[in-house]
Design goal:
This protein has 245 residues and is of the alpha/beta class. Helix content is 37%, strand content 17%. Helix 1 links the parallel strand 2 and strand 3.
């Protein structure tokens, strides 16, 4: 479910003595120590911890990591924060004082209600958490995941790629995405194709998510059908809201 594991990003402006860490990951002490050493090797201390969303594979270690570094944890969801400041769409986080690293917050709900992406405008790079992966596609799981929001988020990111604001995606799992425009086009077309399959299954008489999964995910390992059912439930909610089911 996490491909090669969760990517933790250490962000440092060249020559700066401060660093931000995005998604410290699961509560694995060895990993957290390695992240601290990476920042120290660059001559920086960690002053900000930012979360793309609250799923444990991204955020479970945040409180331990905050104690290790003394840095606050900033997130959209107040329950995931440690400190007085949260994050919201349009916020700008500056690491290293005036003239330091600029991180712009982009709300990208859909995978979860609290999903955020982080734009590094100087590098035209976007950290996407689970909104866009390095390979494969993202799970939009009912009930927290909402397909309408996710499609809106993908459309917003596609516009950013088309306008030249994003040249590379740094995902929460998997390798870098060097052609974000093509990837976002694929994501949108994949969602449209899955919706058409769900509509076809309903027309064929399937009524439950489990029945639909058995029909349209027949080529997928049954071990992950539980996740497919959550995805189908999100698609059914979307179709119901549109009045097409």
């Amino acid at each position: 479910m996490t491909l090669d594991g969760t990517n933790t990003w250490v962000l440092i402006e060249p020559g700066s003595t401060e660093a931000a860490v995005v998604d410290p990951g699961p509560d694995h002490l060895g990993h957290l120590r390695a992240v601290v050493k990476r920042a120290e090797h660059a001559g920086a201390r960690i002053t900000s911890i930012l979360l793309t969303h609250g799923h444990p594979d991204h955020a479970e270690s945040a409180r331990r990591f905050a104690k290790m570094t003394g840095a606050p944890v900033r997130a959209l969801d107040p329950a995931a924060r440690l400190g007085i400041e949260g994050l919201a769409d349009g916020d700008v986080v500056t690491v290293g004082g005036p003239g330091g690293l600029e991180i712009r917050v982009v709300a990208t709900p859909g995978h979860t209600g609290d999903s955020l992406s982080f734009l590094l405008p100087a590098d035209r790079a976007l950290l996407t958490g689970d909104t866009v992966l390095g390979r494969g596609t993202t799970l939009v799981a009912h009930p927290d995941g909402r397909l309408a929001d996710y499609l809106d988020s993908l459309t917003r990111l596609r516009r950013m790629a088309e306008s030249g604001h994003v040249d590379i995606v740094l995902p929460g799992h998997g390798p870098l995405v060097n052609d974000p425009r093509a990837t976002l086009e694929f994501y949108l077309s994949h969602r449209a194709a899955r919706l058409a399959q769900v509509e076809g299954a309903l027309a064929a008489g399937d009524r439950t998510a489990a029945e639909i999964v058995r029909r349209i995910y027949a080529d997928v390992d049954p071990a992950v059908w539980f996740a497919a059912e959550l995805s189908v439930m999100a698609q059914l909610d979307y179709l119901n809201a549109r009045g097409t089911n």
